[in-house]
Design brief:
Elements lengths: L1 E5 L5 E6 L7 E6 L2 H6 L2 E3 L5 E6 L5 E4 L7 E5 L7 E6 L2 E7 L3 E2 L6 E6 L6 H11 L3 E4 L1
Parallel strand pairs: 3-11, 5-12
Antiparallel strand pairs: 1-2, 1-10, 2-5, 3-4, 4-9, 6-7, 7-8, 8-9
Length: about 140
């Protein structure tokens, strides 16, 4: 299944090839202060392929906080955060914001709460390597 998404203005767009086709799409609402304030609800397909295109790179800021092991890609034009990346051992991993998905029936999203604030950095990075999208390409 090919899932497309974008920020509000279309400066950051992505396509996620989800294999195999999901019956449900997990949607994890992180309870950290940043995600709570920005309504961040994240999904990933570890064996999927994410292709990200940016129209104007000068209008994208990257924000890292806490352990500084992840970067939130923020569109400076419209303020939407469509994805988060984490560089681990020379590989780039990502999750995408379900609120940025295009054409997905809301009933297909299986929403749940997520709390990662107490994770040690090593545990956090290992979790990302297991569950985040492993094949990430910026065009």
């Amino acid at each position: 299944m090919l899932i497309e998404g974008r920020c509000h203005c279309g400066n950051i767009i992505f396509s996620l090839r989800w294999e195999p086709d999901p019956e449900e799409i997990p949607a994890r609402a992180c309870d950290c202060s940043f995600c709570t304030k920005h309504q961040g609800v994240w999904t990933s397909c570890p064996d999927g392929h994410l292709r990200v295109s940016v129209q104007d790179a000068a209008r994208v800021s990257r924000y890292a906080f806490g352990t500084r092991t992840a970067e939130f890609h923020v569109c400076a034009r419209c303020g939407v955060i469509p994805l988060v990346t984490s560089a681990i051992d020379g590989n780039l991993y990502a999750v995408v914001n379900v609120n940025a998905l295009e054409g997905i029936e809301p009933s297909r999203l299986k929403r749940s709460a997520a709390s990662f604030g107490e994770e040690e950095a090593g545990v956090r990075l290992a979790r990302r390597q297991r569950y985040w999208i492993k094949n990430v390409e910026f065009a």
